[in-house]
Amino acid sequence: MEIQQEVNPSPPNTKNSDKTMTPEEAKQLHTKLNHYYRDRKKGAKRKPKPVLKPIGDTETIQKHLTIQKAPTDWDDLANGSLFAVDPSGALLFTKISNSRALCLNFMKSQPVGGAAVYRIFL
Fold it and tell me: What torsion do the CA atoms of 102, 107, 108, 113 make, to the nearest 10 degrees?
Protein backbone atom coordinates (compact mmCIF):
# COMPACT_ATOMS: atom_id res chain seq x y z
CA MET A 1 0.00 0.00 0.00
CA GLU A 2 1.33 3.34 -1.00
CA ILE A 3 1.04 6.47 1.02
CA GLN A 4 0.39 9.53 -1.03
CA GLN A 5 2.19 12.64 0.00
CA GLU A 6 1.04 16.07 -0.92
CA VAL A 7 3.63 17.87 -3.05
CA ASN A 8 4.10 21.55 -2.32
CA PRO A 9 5.21 23.36 -5.54
CA SER A 10 6.69 26.31 -3.67
CA PRO A 11 9.95 25.86 -1.77
CA PRO A 12 9.91 26.23 2.00
CA ASN A 13 10.47 29.68 3.52
CA THR A 14 8.50 31.41 0.77
CA LYS A 15 5.07 32.95 0.93
CA ASN A 16 2.22 31.80 -1.26
CA SER A 17 1.05 34.26 -3.89
CA ASP A 18 -2.30 34.73 -2.18
CA LYS A 19 -0.68 36.05 0.99
CA THR A 20 0.93 39.46 1.26
CA MET A 21 4.16 40.34 3.00
CA THR A 22 4.21 42.13 6.27
CA PRO A 23 5.97 45.50 6.30
CA GLU A 24 8.87 43.98 8.26
CA GLU A 25 9.32 41.21 5.68
CA ALA A 26 9.13 43.70 2.83
CA LYS A 27 11.79 45.84 4.48
CA GLN A 28 14.08 42.82 4.96
CA LEU A 29 13.65 41.77 1.33
CA HIS A 30 14.28 45.32 0.14
CA THR A 31 17.48 45.48 2.22
CA LYS A 32 18.70 42.14 0.83
CA LEU A 33 18.05 43.26 -2.74
CA ASN A 34 19.85 46.56 -2.18
CA HIS A 35 22.89 44.76 -0.77
CA TYR A 36 22.86 42.33 -3.69
CA TYR A 37 22.80 45.06 -6.34
CA ARG A 38 25.36 47.19 -4.50
CA ASP A 39 27.76 44.25 -4.24
CA ARG A 40 27.23 43.42 -7.91
CA LYS A 41 28.25 46.93 -8.97
CA LYS A 42 31.50 46.85 -6.99
CA GLY A 43 33.05 44.44 -9.46
CA ALA A 44 32.13 46.53 -12.49
CA LYS A 45 35.10 48.18 -14.14
CA ARG A 46 34.80 51.80 -15.07
CA LYS A 47 36.70 53.45 -17.84
CA PRO A 48 39.39 55.62 -16.26
CA LYS A 49 39.34 59.33 -17.00
CA PRO A 50 42.29 60.64 -19.00
CA VAL A 51 45.11 62.14 -17.00
CA LEU A 52 46.07 65.74 -17.72
CA LYS A 53 49.71 66.01 -18.56
CA PRO A 54 51.82 69.10 -17.90
CA ILE A 55 52.66 71.06 -21.00
CA GLY A 56 56.34 71.27 -20.08
CA ASP A 57 58.50 74.11 -21.30
CA THR A 58 56.72 76.89 -23.11
CA GLU A 59 57.95 79.13 -25.85
CA THR A 60 56.83 82.67 -26.59
CA ILE A 61 55.95 83.31 -30.22
CA GLN A 62 54.79 86.37 -32.06
CA LYS A 63 51.57 85.86 -34.01
CA HIS A 64 49.84 88.43 -36.19
CA LEU A 65 46.07 88.51 -35.84
CA THR A 66 43.68 89.95 -38.37
CA ILE A 67 40.87 91.95 -36.74
CA GLN A 68 37.78 92.85 -38.73
CA LYS A 69 37.31 96.64 -39.07
CA ALA A 70 33.51 96.69 -38.97
CA PRO A 71 31.76 95.31 -35.88
CA THR A 72 29.59 92.20 -36.15
CA ASP A 73 26.45 91.44 -34.18
CA TRP A 74 26.82 88.91 -31.34
CA ASP A 75 24.07 86.68 -32.73
CA ASP A 76 25.89 86.34 -36.08
CA LEU A 77 28.96 84.76 -34.45
CA ALA A 78 29.20 80.97 -34.40
CA ASN A 79 30.12 79.15 -31.19
CA GLY A 80 33.90 78.85 -30.88
CA SER A 81 34.58 82.05 -32.83
CA LEU A 82 37.34 84.39 -31.68
CA PHE A 83 36.42 88.02 -31.19
CA ALA A 84 37.36 91.23 -29.41
CA VAL A 85 35.15 93.95 -27.98
CA ASP A 86 37.33 96.76 -29.32
CA PRO A 87 39.16 97.14 -32.65
CA SER A 88 42.59 97.09 -30.97
CA GLY A 89 42.08 93.50 -29.73
CA ALA A 90 43.32 94.13 -26.20
CA LEU A 91 41.03 91.46 -24.72
CA LEU A 92 40.42 88.28 -26.70
CA PHE A 93 37.25 86.25 -26.27
CA THR A 94 35.73 83.02 -27.57
CA LYS A 95 32.00 82.57 -27.89
CA ILE A 96 31.09 79.39 -25.97
CA SER A 97 27.28 79.58 -26.15
CA ASN A 98 24.49 81.97 -27.10
CA SER A 99 24.78 83.69 -23.73
CA ARG A 100 28.41 83.18 -22.59
CA ALA A 101 31.90 84.11 -23.71
CA LEU A 102 35.31 82.98 -22.45
CA CYS A 103 37.96 85.67 -21.92
CA LEU A 104 41.22 84.15 -23.15
CA ASN A 105 43.33 86.69 -21.26
CA PHE A 106 41.95 85.70 -17.83
CA MET A 107 40.34 82.30 -18.64
CA LYS A 108 37.03 83.37 -17.09
CA SER A 109 33.61 82.97 -18.64
CA GLN A 110 31.25 85.93 -18.70
CA PRO A 111 27.54 86.27 -19.42
CA VAL A 112 26.69 88.12 -22.63
CA GLY A 113 23.28 89.45 -23.61
CA GLY A 114 24.34 90.93 -26.92
CA ALA A 115 27.13 93.10 -28.30
CA ALA A 116 28.78 94.54 -31.34
CA VAL A 117 32.07 92.62 -31.56
CA TYR A 118 35.08 92.48 -33.87
CA ARG A 119 35.91 89.09 -35.41
CA ILE A 120 39.48 87.86 -35.16
CA PHE A 121 41.11 85.66 -37.79
CA LEU A 122 44.34 83.76 -37.22
Answer: -20
